[in-house]
Amino acid sequence: MDQDLPFLTFHAFSSKPNGDILGGVPLGTVLDTCYVAAGNKSGKLCDSEEADIDDTDADALLVPGRYQFVVVQDGGGLDQDYDLCTTFAAWKPPTYIRHRWQNGDGNYDMPFTSKSEVSMAVKIQDKRCIVSGATTGLRASHMMPKSAENWVEDHYNILLGYGGDPKEELDSTCNEVALRADLNGQGLDHDVFFFVPYAGSVTALFVDNKSLDLASRYHFVHTPFPDRIRRGYLFVRFAWNVFKHWGSMLDAVQKRKDKRKKDEDKRKRDEDRRKRDEDRRKHGGNKRKRDDGPDGGTTREAMLVYPTPIVTYAI
Q1: CA-to-CA distance for 131 and 206, rounded, in angstroms?
Q2: Which value, to the nearest 10 degrees, does the dihedral of the CA atoms of residues 253, 255, 258, 263 take?
Q3: SS (H, E, C) 187-236
Q4: Contacts of 102 (CB under 8 A, 6+ apart)
Q5: N or C, fewer C-beta in 10 Å, the chain?
Q6: From CA 78, how far away is CA 63, in angstroms rounded?
Q7: What is the pLDDT of residues 112-136, one digit of tens each?
Q8: Where is the composition biased (Basic and acidic residues) (predicted)?
């Protein structure tokens, strides 16, 4: 992977979870983000000195710095030249989500006949914004985004494995939570913050400094995240936010990688052609023929095919 151009950047806010002033990003969140960006490939982080980062504690905070993500293959080999997934539309949900994203039973009391009934039921069940605690100005916020309806259809069979019918549950209480209007429209839907598992609960993690007023109040807030929400749907929302937030960076790095590969392939072809020309000159076989093609006739290297010698054995 291109080591000159980062494909992810996090803003490491200071906050006071559990009474301590901390500055950093949970290691598990960084690894999960890399996993999604690498097309569901697991790996490890190395620091600027190429030393491996201990990943046994997913809740450890990764301090600000420069890190490299290396894909670890099934056989234990390392891959530093992996391709990136650059859009949510191209991303395929994993068959199994990571253990720390699990929980949530996906149960809801009754089917509803309209979106407004679902929205009202969500607000009644949650009672308040699960991030700010506000009781007014609430919106029912989708975890698996409503705009992903076609994507859900494309990956229906995989999403069924998350425990429910994703098409039926897209507009249901097991896919929606109550958020204050600004935290929904200006926050979650604008990828300013993500919901991530941290320290035993689902936490609001701000990754961008576009809304410093919200970040100063709600970064690292542990939420009373409803058990009715399928965690597979929450992971889909996480991936959706990853591509919305970092998609342009991922695309720039992948395009640069593709160009380097194309240039390297051309260099190898040119080198092979040069060696063939040298071999022909050494063996007196630098013959050319006229090819009167549709371009009006160009001179090309003649490809000479020699028959296999027939050897007769005398008995």
Answers
A1: 12
A2: -100
A3: HHCCCCEEEEEECCEEEEEECCCCCHHHHHHHCCEECCCCCCCCHHHHHH
A4: 231
A5: C
A6: 24
A7: 668 889 999 999 999 999 999 999 9
A8: 261-281
Task: State both tokens at 230.
Answer: 């399928």
Residue 113, pLDDT score: 64
Which of 32, 54, 52, 50 has its CA nearest to residue 42?
A: 32
Place of tokens 């995989």: 158
Q: Can you read off the two tokens belonging to residue 182?
A: 């600004």
Between CA 162 and CA 172 the distance in angstroms is 15
- Residue 23: CA atoms inside 13 Å, Cβ hemisphere, count? 6
Q: What angle do CA 284, 287, 290 make, to 5 degrees?
A: 175
43: Cα separation from own chain's centroid? 13
- Nearest Cα residue to 238 out of 296, 295, 197: 197
What is the helix (H) or strand (E) element at residue 264, kind and residue range? helix 231-282
Nearest one of 234, 191, 217, 211 to 134, comparing CA atoms: 217
**Token pair for residue 49?**
């000195």
List the structure tokens of 241: 């936010």
- Which pTM was predicted? 0.81
Q: What is the pLDDT of residue 307?
A: 35
In the beta sheet, which residues pair with residue 45?
69
Residue type (1 letter), 208: D
Q: Which residues contact 6 (CB under 8 A, 6 or more apart)?
A: 66, 249, 253
| HSE (side-chain half, CA atoms, 13 Å) at 24 | 16
* Whole-number Å distance between alpha carbons of 163 and 33: 23
Statement: residue 62 has pLDDT above 70: yes
